[in-house]
Amino acid sequence: MKKLLLLLFVLGTGIATQAQQKNSKELSDLFSDELYPLAKDVSEFTNNKVIAHGNVISIVKSTGTTSLAKKRIEGISIEAYSLSLLTSKGKEIALTDQLLANKVVNKFFEVLKRVKESAKTDNRAEVEDILNGL
């Protein structure tokens, strides 16, 4: 009976790890396929308030810059990426918690979408307020 419980525990742990890796992969794909192109589009009309370069998306505010960076995880055989939040004070916060990583990516999406919508009507002041409110 103990062996059966141990086997179930090991299998359950393996399945949870695979699900977490899949979520991380989906988040990485979301960053590359949707968030980064949106940031590139927005950067064209925000006068260096939104910068998309390499694997980094930066939003420049009056209080400093907030960036979201995607980095390749070295030393493992599969292609995997991690996300980090970078502050203007030079602090790097690794987004290892999946819920927190999703929340940060969603926040960047929300801000960039609002900026894109506001920019269609050419409201510079409103765009500045949105970016500064990140």
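Next protein, fold it too.
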Amino acid sequence: MREQPNGEALGDDEWVLSGVMWPPEREMNASEVSASLAKALAGSRGVKFFATDLIDAPSDAPLGRVQMAIDETAGEACGIYLTTHIAGVDAETGEPILVDEATRPFKFPCSGCVEEAISTFCENMRLAGVIR
């Protein structure tokens, strides 16, 4: 048996997922990073960049993407959350026009562990009401 966050005991087959999950992150080149994230890290050296998709755990629906920069020397991480919206439809082709929207970069202390940094970032985005 496990305990739900509300303290109610459930059998293992009754566990209710909540929050977000993500597949393994991939390392990115600096040239792939969003302009706002790159600007927030201007002048930093030895920064490693990572990206992953966020998935709503209960529904398995895609939520958006995270780009994360980790500066092990400074003990800091900086992340942005990206979503894609349909801005309109191309009159000639009928294809949707997609636009990326990013949150402001969010910096926080980090031990260098990418998974921990993504988890901390997601928790802060959840508390801010940006993601569920």
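About the second fold: The longest helix spans residues 114-127.
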